[in-house]
Write a structure and sequence with these properties.
Layout: E1 2-7, H1 11-24, E2 29-33, H2 42-47, E3 51-55, E4 63-67, E5 71-75, E6 89-94, E7 97-103, H3 113-134, E8 139-144, H4 168-178, E9 183-184, H5 185-189, E10 199-200, E11 212-213, E12 216-220, H6 222-226, E13 228-233, E14 249-253
Helix pairs in contact: 3-4
This protein binds one DNA strand of 18 nucleotides through loops.
Length: 255
DNA sequence: ATGCCGTCCGAAGGACGA
């Protein structure tokens, strides 16, 4: 079972890219982030053979899933704050597996309510995942975590020192998720391997110079970690015409 | 030290991203 996560930076702008990836990627499930629009063309994707679900809002955020098998939606929002209307969370089951698609808040600039929102969102996520662990529900969570876990996940740690993605608080909150007994798929299979990124800024020639950061991740509960076959970053879509600034990360799970 | 680029909304340029 192949599951991919990809921040597409506008579904409207990346529609052809997504359709190409669904056609050629050999995926069972694709989870995407940053739809950046209210409308989601369920009918058009159904015609292409995909079950879909989406949580959207106007202009910002938004997450969606594509699956070859029917989708049972579990939650369309992260519990813990009824006033939070940002479309960043989708928990579902498909093909007998619990999956979670997230677009974790960016949090910049540090020292503002945006950063405290990021940290509070991560604490709410911790509580939700803790519940799933306590209830012994196997799951995989993937998405744009907007966290650079370690120095080796960043081409130039100094350049990111003041960024919300690299703050000690952000990284500690990420580790706290791992301390629930979760496996970070890419790093578990590729330890001590710097230079592997999932995001490259559009500016300053970041892509050709491989000045990237690794911020898109999959975390697996123990049962699914046991079944993890591979975790790869597919750099190809970042080289396409008018690309997203992120590229897909893919896990393969033994069925 | 800062902007670089891209997208949205909407019809100019600010908000946001990371």
């Amino acid at each position: 079972m192949k599951i991919a996560s990809w921040n597409v930076n506008s579904l409207k702008a990346r529609r052809a890219h997504v359709e190409k990836y669904l056609a050629d990627g050999g995926l069972d499930v694709l989870m995407v982030q940053e739809l950046k629009g209210l409308d989601f063309p369920h009918g058009e994707f159904k015609a292409l053979g995909w079950h879909t679900a989406a949580v959207t809002q106007k202009t910002y955020n938004g997450v969606a899933i594509f699956s070859k098998t029917p989708i049972k939606i579990i939650k369309e929002a992260l519990p813990g704050d009824k006033d939070d209307e940002q479309a960043r969370y989708l928990e579902f089951e498909t093909n007998g597996v619990r999956l979670i698609d997230i677009y974790l808040p960016n949090g910049n600039p540090v020292g503002t309510e945006k950063f405290t929102y990021k940290l509070s969102w991560m604490e709410r996520l911790y509580k939700r995942l803790k519940t799933l662990r306590k209830d012994n529900i196997p799951f995989a969570i993937g998405g744009d975590f907007n966290v650079i876990p370690e120095d080796q996940d960043c081409y130039d740690p100094k350049a990111w020192q003041t960024d919300a993605l690299f703050q000690p608080e952000s990284r500690a909150a990420f580790r706290k998720l791992l301390h629930l007994g979760l496996t970070e798929a890419f790093r578990a299979l590729h330890p001590n391997a710097p230079g592997h990124y999932t995001f490259w800024d559009y500016q300053a020639g970041a892509w050709p110079k491989n000045h990237g950061i690794r911020i898109d991740h999959f975390l697996l509960s123990p049962e699914l970690a046991d079944r993890l076959i591979s975790c790869t970053i597919d750099k190809a879509p970042r080289s396409w015409d008018k690309p997203s600034d992120h590229t897909p990360i893919i896990i393969e799970i033994d069925p």
